[in-house]
């Protein structure tokens, strides 16, 4: 685009929604390829002697939180690091399997920084910032060096150089990995670096502690109120800056590939204080999850899509084919991804693979006892490469399948089905990762950055790590530099007491309902509504239905929740109830966002906006990020009547040619 | 499917604990042990009773949160498998199970089946890390590593920190855990540089909180990641190496 046209906000079809402001991302003008380098060089700094005078709170110890806390500690800032698990090492980053992208471009497969940026922006279906993709690519180079140095044993070729593989949605090989446990190795390395700072005294660790609320003063964030999950004690931690790195909220669908404790609470509290929530309904469903098999199943397990490098996806050509898969000859198998998308085949992006899988299942070709799955077949690869090679590449994935399903994947094709996996949506942040609340930053999966409407495989370990290690450690000092004279709020300041009182009131509100249904019960029902009405496929009708159903469920929750005990001591049911209460509010906003956005893009697939079965973007009207504001009369203790305002950040692409995604 | 559970209940670390018996009869053989606790807790909450406290997060055997002792087996009767992956199909309908927390002197009970394993974090803080600040690392390609060496480092780096090894040890030793970290880092070129300093610090932290090793080998027998006993031997080896280096 050479000439800028004035941005025209499209009207909304959602009753009650107001149109708000045009947002400024603070990306420096000029070439997006150099925007980050120019921004980084221009940042103000804090002198080493003054750094310990600044207190920074980091919520979360995943790749983003542990990285930010460790790096800021290394620089000499006074850091407080929080996580809800008993040890910082247990953040859900540990579960990532496949790998981490890096635009190192050392091979002769024509990879380059530009190609990487094109892949990211195209993968995100032109709903993300071009300049941010450049940042990822640029910082990815030293990220690999750093993680390698601090202990991540990246896979190596026999000659000793780093090994790579290719991941869904791209045609080059730029994914670095450690067997099928890349997230674990990156997370453990980051955790070790964090513990090194704990030992050095720069970081104070608060494990088993949950963020309950923000301390707010004159519209700025001044710290947090937390609850020690071992003792039930509430306390305040004032800070000059707060960074929320609490991961994704896909658990809102009840069954997901997330951890049991994954939640939206920290970002949702921030949102209720005015931090905009961008793209809440942009949620990725992963095509290769283990299918649901038991009625009381508490989660679904992911099989890394790296398997799609060596596995072939198929269903029988005949409906309700009773034969076991190994007895169905090749010509009677429908390798639907290979035939429909010859260029990318089994490596099409996740949303395409998920929707096609769901389409086959809905059309009656599903396999397995509940007919809710498709085959993911490595037996051809075993024939070609041998069982040893396949095992070395995917040992823990294959083992997990054996343990969970009780079948041998090297001999019998595995069964998979799509499930909730990644939330592109999150707090709106500017180029410095600061929300629209002064002093409140957000990193990792919890923010809306980089990935637009759809995240490419192996790009989140990268973005979370780059946020933590190589973005926040520059932008936080820049924010703090002019604030040397600012003192922290004292424990008896009104803003601190207010925040503690709000938290107490909420705990009391939850424990005093004395109803008849557990929070798990409400959570499961919310998940069912969202899967049905705001899942892989959405329509005006389904979303309208979803909004009403969620409002009713939320009213029922605040009327009929049953909780054991009071707020004192360990109370896991209370922890869960607080998270479900927040989900019941966020769920409504997700449906509103999905209903409002009258186009299909990336993971957001509206039946009204398609062409030949493929999603149809509307760049003329919707090439912007929706950043939502929620207004509600009461504080957080009770069922709010919410109303919403859509703020907008227009997107423009200077280097990447805007085109429709085409994986055929 | 129905199971009878004798479950350890303990209000906090200062209180006495005791077993209480529960019957759960709406179970399915495909469920995990933790999903069985979920069911039980749903019933308890609806009956106005205190649910059983237990830890879990990823439920795919990688975060290391979960772990209870079932009939004396840390994590459960199926060897080398975290509690979250232990399926009910291994039990017979009507069976009685005795469920306790992971037991070790270094693991105070927080409540019921939840224990405090922060001693393991203190071993890592003491030296299970690498003295390189962000931004100062050399090019990863400039330090070639043999394929087999990385694979070997990974065999030890896979430790999930669940701490079942300590609970399985009659002495409550943390040798397998500590040795796995020492080996993981000693095999890689950059981390190897501070190998001696690391060994001294980690071993000192380990001995401060955990028991001594009498080579029972129970640790490796329960390890969900099947970390071999070489890790235990490595503690002595790395410690001696550090001692020698000091003498030279
Ligand atoms: C099964 C699985 C496989 C994946 N595989 C890949 C892959 O191969 N490649 C890839 O690039 N990406 C992958 N991803 C995505 C990627 O792992 C995540 O997006 C990323 O690790 C998230 O990191 P994070 O730092 O944002 O959050 P997390 O690692 O989720 O950390 C969240 C932290 O916040 C804390 N926290 C949360 N809420 C609160 C609260 N209210 N109070 C206090 N603390 C709180 C938690 O304790 C935790 O420490 C995968 C994801 C899953 C689920």
User: Strand count, sense and closure of the main sheet of chain A?
Assistant: 6 strands, mixed
Biggest pleated-sheet summary of chain B: 5 strands, mixed
CATH class annotation of one domain in chain A: Mainly Alpha
Radius of gyration of chain A, in angstroms, nearest whole number: 24 Å
CATH topology of the largest domain in chain B: Fumarate Reductase Iron-sulfur Protein, Chain B, domain 2
Oligomer: heterodimer
The name of the CATH architecture of the largest domain in chain B is Orthogonal Bundle
Number of separate helices of chain B: 9
Q: How many angstroms does the end-to-end distance of chain A come to?
A: 26 Å
Helix content of chain A: 25-40%
Look at the structure and give the CATH class of the largest domain in chain B: Mainly Alpha
Q: Structural class, judged by helices and strands of chain B? A: alpha+beta
Could you report the average pLDDT of chain A, rounded to the nearest whole number? 94
CATH structural architecture of one domain in chain A: Up-down Bundle
Number of separate structural domains of chain B: 2
Ligand set: flavin-adenine dinucleotide
Largest interface comes to:
A-B, 82 and 79 residues
**What is the tally of beta strands of chain B?**
7
Under CATH, the topology of one domain in chain A is which? Methane Monooxygenase Hydroxylase, Chain G, domain 1
What is the element layout, followed by pairings?
The complex is a heterodimer of chains A (664) and B (248).
Chain A (H helix, E strand, L loop, with lengths): L17 E5 L9 H11 L5 H4 L3 E5 L3 H13 L2 E5 L17 E2 L11 H11 L6 H20 L25 E2 L5 H19 L2 E4 L2 E9 L2 E9 L5 E5 L2 E4 L20 H8 L4 E2 L4 E7 L22 E5 L16 E2 L1 H5 L9 H16 L8 E4 L1 H7 L1 H19 L8 E10 L2 E3 L11 E3 L4 E2 L11 H11 L1 H9 L13 H18 L7 H15 L6 H21 L11 H25 L13 E2 L2 E2 L3 H4 L1 E8 L11 E8 L14
Parallel strand pairs in A: 1-23, 2-3, 2-10, 3-6, 10-18, 17-19
Antiparallel strand pairs in A: 4-5, 7-8, 8-9, 11-17, 11-22, 12-16, 13-14, 13-15, 15-16, 20-21, 22-23
Helix pairs in contact in A: 1-5, 3-6, 3-12, 4-5, 5-12, 10-11, 15-16, 15-17, 16-17
Chain B lengths: L2 E7 L8 E7 L8 H14 L21 E3 L2 E2 L21 E6 L7 E3 L2 E2 L2 H10 L19 H11 L6 H5 L6 H12 L2 H4 L2 H15 L8 H5 L7 H18 L1
Parallel strand pairs in B: 1-5
Antiparallel strand pairs in B: 1-2, 3-4, 3-5, 6-7
Helix pairs in contact in B: 2-7, 3-5, 5-7, 5-9, 7-9
The complex binds flavin-adenine dinucleotide.
